[in-house]
Specification:
Helix content of chain A: 55-70%
Strand content of chain A: under 5%
Number of helices of chain A: 32
Low-confidence stretches of chain A: 16-54, 701-707, 793-814
Structural class of chain A: mainly alpha
GO cellular component, one term (chains A, B): recycling endosome membrane
Mean pLDDT of chain A: 79
Keywords (chains A, B): Calcium, Calcium channel, Calcium transport, Coiled coil, Endosome, Ion channel, Ion transport, Lysosome, Membrane, Repeat, Transmembrane, Transmembrane helix, Transport, Voltage-gated channel
Pfam families (chains A, B): Ion_trans
Family (chains A, B): Belongs to the calcium channel alpha-1 subunit (TC 1.A.1.11) family. Two pore calcium channel subfamily.
Shape of chain A: globular
Organism (chains A, B): Oncorhynchus mykiss (Rainbow trout)
Number of strands of chain A: 5
Oligomer: homodimer
């Protein structure tokens, strides 16, 4: 660590005086040879000003470094967030706006504004009855939220500059929608009544644009990328539909008792619904009862449309999806690499253009992760610096994103949490530990769970007379709960809370047991609304699936998929929201009991009293419940439409009460959900096939017990190193509080009496890690290609000058 | 072609005198070193007998060669059919049986017997009304068919030998089923009435065992191989179902108006049906109308079961399927290679152990493809012999299966069929040819088709009052038909019938146009039952899909998939058949109009007259049509169950008229079709993804115009060669008729005056060809592995002795 105080940065940034000039020139310098070097040199000792003495030189140098650290941190952040570099702040004013707009408080505000705007539709007419608000209240709330959005947009404008701002498509769309909503909200406030506001369907844009909704944005992009081939096949589907509609009309319209094919329009609608199978076999029945051979028409149609073209659709989307996933991974990877390149250039000094010293790295980290403790900053540096050289080379630095998420912990000297306890206590706990780790204990518990399962089944079966909440708690409930409670306590004491809760399965056991206890309490105290907790008891049975490897794999994959599934679900909800708004604007209150008498589905909307014998029974069709009367009902209705079965009853009901153009809404919704659902299927297929290929390729089960906890890095810290680092840190940032953690390391060494400590950094394995391993060879190619295209000529010539390497001959390059 | 008359075969087979000894010893010879060589030598000049003179020696030699040719042909046939070698005939008696049982007449008989047995159920009670036969008639027919099967089995026993016969599982199952059916048929004949014959469900076994149903057998095997992972996931599905059933029972049974969850059994059945979505949202409605939050239960259940686990099922099957496909391809490939190895050993002579001469190859082909003309035999030899060496090496011979299916044709000297016509005529035809090949003509036709499409649509839309057959033929029909007719004629004359019909699209155009003409004729002559031909007219519109590359690809893939899809369809029909028989035995005539009044689905079976105003309308539920009253109705009912929508109405109807154990039948059927359907989806997915990967990997569209016709081989035949070959053939088989084709070659040469002719061998590209290219690298590994394991030591040492190659050092081998 032979770091001197007057290292001069290779590149300078954001100089207050002539920032515009500088950044331009720096860029130019990047392009042509060693030009940047001279400019940099000029910048360090600014000519317009008093002649520099050593002190001011040093202070300005320090300031330049701080600037560089900050810009490097921003580059790395942009790499992490996949922000394009053309939005990189170019001057101090932009920087201030950038910093303002890039912290969790601001993100949170963005998110809350977006959510508030969407939630408003709960209270706007047609509102959920219990949440109805007066017009001036919700319109004022809306205006408030819109002002917030406008404020956020202003910050963005300040940061991006006008030119970049209007080039950024998403932001422009957002601005337009904002203006529209603004005008509409004011109109509502003035008229004191809501008009037909279909544009509310555009509100999700504010949510989607949030930083935290990046996954949703990616999903949307992926959906749009999969669209072209999807639409092609869809056209094929519709084409066959029209041909068969004409055939069906010709064949079946002479049969007057067949309502499905009596006009060409009905014929097309019937066959559209038939693709979803929702009206099968009813649609066939009138024709079939007339002539048995007419079933051939329907069998051929379904075979072509449902069993062939629909699967084709899946195949095409699956294939596109695969390609898009890989391309996305590639571009993310290369973007990160490029960010690291940029940051590296800002961190190297004129004296040592090949490496980043600990001092510079620490400066970077203070900006990149302000909350990170000094110990962890140092350990991260150690983890990067695999070669043990005094500097980080660019190759070391490329691993930045792999180590940045590690959680550091000292390697335990002992294995168990109770190692430090007195001998007798130790023996007891050791016994418990051995017990809970034994196979016998495990299998006993499986048997208990299985018996419990059978018990619950039999018990429920016996209850056939009808379940009643007020009944006494069965003794079996208490017995099994006691057993589970004892198990949890034993495991907790035997393994220690930390080890216990680090396993997802244990967490699951624990929470189910706690829920069961809560259920017992609700039963004991007669708290009616929480009774449902009691019935969660059978979830214990899920533990049985730990026994078999395949199930463990499946469930683990399920948990791994969960974040991505959640974002896909959110994407679906955003589509739902837009459709719900449109549905509410047009179809609110159109269906009600005993409506739709002119349609073929009148039965499903009927609600009449029928007298059977001497009892009067309410004969309910219930479908009037599937309405668009408020946003929650709309969501449920849309979910039913997504499931597709009997969706035409809802469609026909609404159509009979409005115009037959309403069908367009339902059919569009069907096609949109079909796209999203196909993407979801393709995604699940892809994720599983990927995992299975992965474990086949690496000839190992994906989760061997050793690295079940994910990625592990190791760093050994010696006493001298720790002391030297502490000195360095004291010099660079004298604030004492941030150094506590590093002093803690020294204290721990003193306590254990050893001259070095080993720290382990862990993080869970992500899809990206798996992809890295899967595409190993391709990644090398991508990197090679990338460096051919992107390595700036300047760096290269600089490096070469420094090391006296002759420029590569053309032959060697090829 | 320095073939001498007294080449001695390296291995001898099926010697009449001591065949058992020989075949055993030959095998032993294969195992231990060059031993086979000596034994062979001993065999050739049999010691017990008169001292051999040259003539008898020569005759016996000739006979030995013929034997070898035949056995080699059988080996190659076994390789082609994927018959295991342990069923290879071992002695002349077995050979006779083998030959008897391996020709198309026998196969046809097998197939017909199988079909007859299955078709019988059309006539057995409950029969299709118009096909009903008396008991003694159909029982006698059945006995007849069973005797045929028994005869076939006897032939197989003779060929395989008792020991192999009882080891062959499929044959043993067939025998048992045969015995059972025999006894039952006799019982039926004696009692003169059919008893409960569920065992008829086993009849498809006779069909599946046919040689021609190999694809179905492979499908079945693949289905069974995909079962274990499928069942695992199915258990997961059922497990969640039971858990949710308990929860549902606890939550919803207090609601007395909810018939879906009032007992645990109903709860499980409701949730089973819900996985198929068939009762959604009805199953939710009673609970939903009571408490709006109960929808959460159903949404969570459907999300887990339908959207997650069902997709998981597809993923697992897709993955297994991929693996199975590859393994199948590998084993087929290696089996063929092994067959070629065996055949090669039989064809080489003691004098030349490294190669097969034309004479031997021709001898083989006379057995392998008796109908092949001498010209084609020679051309096949030329195609194999790429190096132009006097012999085929083993490596040449490995390509045997690639060239055997080629259809040979002399390369046309001219391009068009009308090249030989007089000049004026030639010019006219040339003009037509240029016209039909021009883009303008093509696009004009597309426009015509599109206009026709719009016309038909508008015309049909105008007809909204109802379609009537007796109406006059619209003039547009005649106009468009004339245009299409002219187009077909122009293309036929311009391209020549051969070129015209070689394109699938042209064939399609042609047949649609012919159908349209037939339609016109039926209209003109008022033939009512054939009216449906008229409405096939819109199929013309399919031609529009030629415009875009993706559609061409999709439709081509569709045609390529067709054989495989057909075999999958047949597999499905076999499952249908078994289920139909079981259904008929138990549920025939249980549902009828106005039955099932005790069930919740009584409405669907109702058939009553309703008086609305002053009109009496028949209010029909129609579901009584979905019955098991005869095998055709059963098939339609089972198809409806396959489509799944509303299947529970059929299930509940039947259940209410029988016992609730009937549900087991319907649920089992659902699971079985789910397996088959998932396999079909996986197959389509696989086929398309494979094709797309293929074209990506080879950076070319799959069907570039050049090799649209598939695989092409070229062979040039010079005059001298042809003459020499003719001489050789005359010597080996003096029958003149078979030489005509070779003499034809010489005649063609004389006519054209050239000293050589080029022949092109074509065949369509199969999936196996694509796989060969896809797995190129892996195939090399498989081969290497295979030869390490299988190359008999004897061959190697023999070869080495012959060529004086030192045995490879261990280092070189590794």
């Amino acid at each position: 660590m032979e770091d001197t105080d007057d290292d001069v940065p290779l590149i300078l940034t954001w100089d207050d005086a002539n920032s515009g000039l500088l950044s331009e020139e720096t860029e130019r310098g990047d392009e042509n040879g060693g030009g940047g070097y001279d400019i940099v040199n000029n910048q360090v000792i600014p000519t317009p000003g008093p002649p520099p003495n050593y002190r001011s030189h040093n202070a300005s140098l320090q300031q330049s470094w701080e600037m560089n650290y900050q810009e490097a941190a921003i580059y790395l952040q942009e790499g992490e967030n996949n922000d394009k570099f053309f939005t990189h702040p170019r001057n101090p004013k932009a920087l201030a706006a950038y910093l303002f707009a890039h912290n969790h408080l601001f993100y949170m505000m963005e998110l809350l504004t977006g959510v508030l705007l969407m939630v408003l539709s709960l209270c706007e007419a047609p509102a959920v009855p219990s949440l109805r608000l007066d017009v001036y209240v919700h319109a004022t709330l809306e205006l408030l939220a819109l002002v917030m959005v406008a404020f956020e947009l202003c910050m963005k404008l300040r940061w991006l500059g006008f030119h970049t701002f209007i080039r950024h498509k998403r932001t422009m769309v957002k601005t337009c929608v904002l203006l529209l909503q603004f005008v509409e909200a004011i109109v509502v406030l003035i008229r004191q009544t809501s008009h037909l506001r279909v544009t509310r369907a555009l509100r999700p844009i504010f949510l989607v644009d949030c930083r935290y909704c990046g996954a949703v944005r990616r999903n949307l992009r992926q959906i749009f990328q999969s669209l072209p081939p999807f639409i092609d096949i869809l056209l094929l589907l519709l084409f066959f539909m029209v041909i068969f509609a004409i055939l069906g009309f010709c064949l079946f319209s002479p049969n007057t008792s067949d309502p499905y094919f009596n006009t060409l329009e009905n014929s097309i609608v019937s066959l559209f619904v038939l693709v979803t199978t929702a009206n099968f076999p009813d649609v066939m029945m009138p024709a079939y009862s007339r002539n048995r051979w007419s079933c051939v028409f329907f069998i051929v149609y379904l075979s072509i449309e449902l069993y062939f073209i629909m699967n084709l659709l899946l195949a095409v989307v699956f294939d596109t999806f695969n390609g898009v996933e890989k391309m996305k991974f590639k571009s993310l990877l290369l973007h990160k690499r490029s960010a690291i390149d940029h940051a590296f250039q800002l961190l190297v000094s004129r004296q040592r253009p090949m490496g980043v010293s600990l001092k510079q790295f620490d400066g970077l980290m203070r900006f990149y992760r302000p909350r990170m403790s000094s110990r962890d900053r140092f350990l991260t540096y150690k983890a990067l610096n695999t070669a043990g050289a005094p500097m980080l080379s660019l190759d070391d630095f490329y691993k930045f994103y792999e180590v940045i998420g590690l959680k550091w912990k000292a390697r335990r000297s002992g294995e168990h949490w109770f190692d430090d306890l007195p001998h007798t206590t130790f023996l007891i706990f050791k016994g418990i530990n051995l017990l809970v780790k034994s196979k016998a204990f495990q299998y006993t518990m499986y048997v208990v769970v299985a018996v419990n399962g059978v018990w619950i089944l039999v018990e429920t079966y016996m209850l056939n007379s009808g379940f009643s909440w007020s009944r006494m708690v069965p003794w079996s409930y208490i017995v099994f709960l006691t057993i589970y409670g004892v198990e949890v306590l034993l495991k907790l004491t035997g393994l220690g809370p930390l080890a216990y809760f680090s396993s997802g399965w244990n967490l699951f056991d624990f929470s189910v047991t706690v829920f069961a206890f809560l259920g017992l309490i609700t039963l004991a105290f007669d708290m009616e609304p929480f009774y449902f907790i009691v019935v969660l008891r059978p979830l214990q049975l899920l533990r049985l699936f730990k026994i078999k490897q395949r199930y463990r794999n499946v469930l683990d994959t399920m948990f791994e998929l969960f974040p991505r599934m959640a974002s896909l679900g959110l994407t679906l909800i955003i589509f739902y929201y837009s459709f719900a708004i449109v549905g509410m604007e047009f179809f609110a209150d159109v269906v009600y009991p005993n409506c739709c008498n002119t349609s073929t589905v009148a039965d499903s909307y009927r609600q009449i009293n029928v007298t059977i014998g001497n009892r009067t029974v309410l004969d309910e069709g219930y479908y009037y419940l599937n309405n668009f009367n408020n946003i929650l009902s709309s969501f449920v209705t849309l979910f039913e439409l997504t499931v597709v079965n009997n969706w035409y009853i809802t469609m026909e009901g609404v159509t009979s009460m409005t115009t037959h153009w309403s069908r367009l809404y339902f059919m569009t919704f069907y096609i949109v959900t079909m796209v999203v659902m196909t993407i979801i299927v393709a995604f699940i297929l892809d994720a599983f096939v990927f995992r299975m290929n992965y474990s086949r390729k690496n000839k190992e089960p994906l989760l061997d017990p050793e690295d079940e906890n994910g990625i592990v890095f190791e760093a050994e810290v010696s006493r001298d190193e720790a002391l030297a680092t502490l000195e360095l840190y004291k010099k660079t940032c004298p604030g004492l509080s941030s150094l506590n953690s590093l002093q803690g390391v020294l204290l721990a060494m003193d306590r254990s009496g050893s001259s070095s400590l080993v720290y382990l950094g862990r993080r869970s394995r992500t899809k990206s890690d798996l992809s890295m391993k899967m595409y190993e060879e391709e990644i090398q190619e991508w990197y090679a290609e990338y460096s051919r295209e992107n390595l700036p000529q300047s760096d290269r010539s600089l490096v070469e000058r420094e090391l006296d390497i002759p420029p590569p001959c053309p032959e060697r390059e090829s």
